[in-house]
Amino acid sequence: MPVFAWKGESLEDYWWSTWQALSHPGGQGPQLIVDDGGDATLLIHKGYELEEGSDWVNSPSASHEEEVIKDLLKQIHSENPRRWHDVVKDWRGVSEETTTGVHRLYKMQEAGKLLVPAINVNDSVTKSKFDNLYGCRESLADGIKRATDVMVAGKVAVVCGYGDVGKGSSHSLRGMGARVVVTEIDPINALQAAMEGFEVTTIEDTLGRGDIYVTCTGNCEIVTLEHMRKMKDQAIVCNIGHFDNEIQMDRLNGSDARKTNIKPQVDMYTFPEGHSIFVLAEGRLVNLGCATGHPSFVMSNSFSNQTLAQLDLWKNRGTYKVGVYTLPKRLDEEVARLHLEKIGVKLTTLSPKQAEYLGVAVEGPYKPDHYRY
Ligand SMILES: NC(=O)c1ccc[n+]([C@@H]2O[C@H](COP(=O)([O-])OP(=O)(O)OC[C@H]3O[C@@H](n4cnc5c(N)ncnc54)[C@H](O)[C@@H]3O)[C@@H](O)[C@H]2O)c1
Hints:
Helix content: 40-55%
Shape: globular
Number of strands: 12
Oligomer: single chain
Bound molecules: nicotinamide-adenine-dinucleotide
Number of helices: 14
């Protein structure tokens, strides 16, 4: 199976690789896509819209990456003005791995622009409540440690965002003895963090005392250049959210801060006043850039969901309507069930009387769809 990726690739390389992965022999494209973050889905949709007359490729770009995508689409269009229509003709669906990619899918659906049926794998309980939470609980600290070897105990760590990834990240850092501060915009998540004993405040309130900054909001411009200017000397800044726009990397790189590469994936930026900060993985996912991502056991849960989603999209390709779907709870429970034996868990079986008392079948599903775990 060809792999179109290598460590240290530029944005131009990355989007060229995405295009190559979508270019199959004989001018064909994929019939099904497993996406993570929605970039393959985005490239096809934007290319298709261009062929339909959209002028997006000529509009001003918010980032260098957007410029790279637009340049690539223009190049493909000049070579073959029907390329993406040909791909879409045979495309039967996509299953999306992560929160940010799912967010993009729902936005496309709302705008009436989605072209194929899509399965939101992230919101299977056995994905987001495991990979995002327990995966990051292990791989965040792993990334920071491999990159810096810093003593985490006693340091002030600031985690921006207390969703599933933020919860795993905060607990990971606390587990190593950091004094963790959380920032949130959602009152429910902020209250959750406070009830877990974390200090909750704004990022501005932490500048000058925070030693480690971690972003995991799925949102943009969380750590700004102005924030970085006011950080404590030797502060470590990293992101474990899907995209690097959580930290203002473009502005930092274009600023008066002097960049010194310490080792691969670790850069020191020294501001004219004399203080420095360390940025890990160029602001990209630190657990992937500086470590090896999540352990395989938790990914096995995620990929079981992906496999079930792909099988379902193909088996029911004749009946699926364009839209975003989640897998049924029965399959979610099945994914968990399949992983119990490996870790030696003994599950209790409901008696028929108990099942009747709860109003569920002995073999499940055990919870209503609105149950939150
Ligand atoms: N690195 C990995 O291995 C990995 C794994 C899973 C998910 N992710 C990515 O991590 C990101 C977060 O995923 P999640 O599942 O935790 O999402 P989530 O929606 O559960 O959590 C994000 C949280 O950030 C908060 N937030 C938004 N804007 C904020 C701001 N300005 N300041 C502070 N908080 C803010 C939201 O209220 C929310 O609670 C996504 O981009 C997702 O794709 C990464």
